[in-house]
Amino acid sequence: MGVSTPSTARRAPWRVVDIVVASVVAVAVGVVFWAWSAGYAAVAAATVAFPPLAGLYGGGWLIAGVIGGLIIRKPGAALYCELLAAVVEGFLGTHFGWAVVISGLVQGAAAEAVFAAFRYRRWNLPVALLAGAAAGIAMGTSENILYNVAWASQWKVVYVILATVSGTVLAGLLSWLAVRALARTGVLAGLASRDAAVERAV
Which UniProt key words apply to this protein (predicted)? Predict the structure, then answer.
């Protein structure tokens, strides 16, 4: 696996541009979270025969942490973006209420832990997939505690597995592809991820 950013950039403190971009990304994705929540009623109805299948939908709520980490590439970015996006979702209003902030904290911390495990040095596809998967595990586990208490143990396990798959694909893969696409447009020119479009995938 190749190192995609200089060590000096990794150790640099957050700059104003990092804070602004991270906040803009988080707010934008928070609106997506709100829309995603609105669609959950249809998903719940479609999966009423086997509710754990709804775990496949959950990855949409994990995007902020992964894409935020991949764009900003500084310690705390994944947690900041996921948490702020959840706060935005809460302000806009969702049937999940302010419990979404707890979810954002847990899921963002899980994605952050993966980037930290690689010492904020690697931002390639495997790391993005791992961050999405970790957030999915955190989501499945926390939602089993918050919402799925009455489910059978087997259902809870299946839900965590499907949430992990969803997190890997929707949050991990799609976020990585999105950052590469953004880098090609030049909008990330002032950020550590400016060369994402030409970095090796693995």
Answer: Membrane, Transmembrane, Transmembrane helix
Mean pLDDT of the chain: 94
pLDDT for 11 equals: 60
Determine the pLDDT at residue 9: 46
Diameter over CA atoms, the chain: 53
CA distance 171 to 129: 8
CA–CA distance, 63 with 107 (Å, rounded to integer): 10
User: What does residue 25 show for φ and ψ, rounded to 5 degrees?
Assistant: -60, -45
Query: pTM of the predicted model, to two decimals?
Result: 0.91
